[in-house]
Amino acid sequence: MNNKLQAKDLINLGLFTVLYFVLGCCVAIPIGFVPIFLPILGALWTLITGIPFMLFLTRVKKFGMVTLMAILSGLLMGLTGMGYWGVPLGLIFGLLGDLILKFGNYKSAKRSLIGYAVFSLWMVGTYIPMYFMVEDSRASFAASFGKEYADKVMAVMPMWSIVLVIAGIFICAIIGGMIGKALLKKHFVKAGIV
């Protein structure tokens, strides 16, 4: 088997990254306007996007595809105004997810769930400004949505809650992956993922 990414792999990567991102935005855009939901936005994203990601895994047989998807997702999130911290975290957690899948020879259903959960941690990058650049984030939110919105967002995101954000993303990714795996069982069998 040729281990280099080919045009077909890159087409699959592009299509599934767009599907993954658009579906995630369908969750993020409506609830992102309600400040109290911002801390759970990443968890909800990973819960919903487990389906397209699991379908993507039926096409992934080469190392690097998951890493590239994480980097592209971080880049797309940056283009929507959520900061570019998702790009370096996409590199880190995408690479770790890729390694987990590779160690399962891209055939392990258990590793596909863990790989997806680790991959999903790229999303923590969107929260970094809110936790570590508080005043800049407050000013950015105030400029876009008004001071009242900015104050409410920062009030529901105390520093200690970053642990809950990370745990929520990881746990909901496992659940989302299980849902995706169950819905796509036929595709998993056909792809030889057991």
UniProtKB/TrEMBL annotation:
Pfam families, alphabetized: Trep_Strep
Keywords: Membrane, Transmembrane, Transmembrane helix
Record flagged with keyword Transmembrane: yes
Membrane-crossing segments per the record: 12-31, 37-56, 63-79, 85-101, 113-134, 154-180
Keyword Zinc: no
InterPro entries xref list: CHP02185_IM (IPR011733)
Source organism superkingdom: Bacteria
Name this polypeptide is given: Trep_Strep domain-containing protein
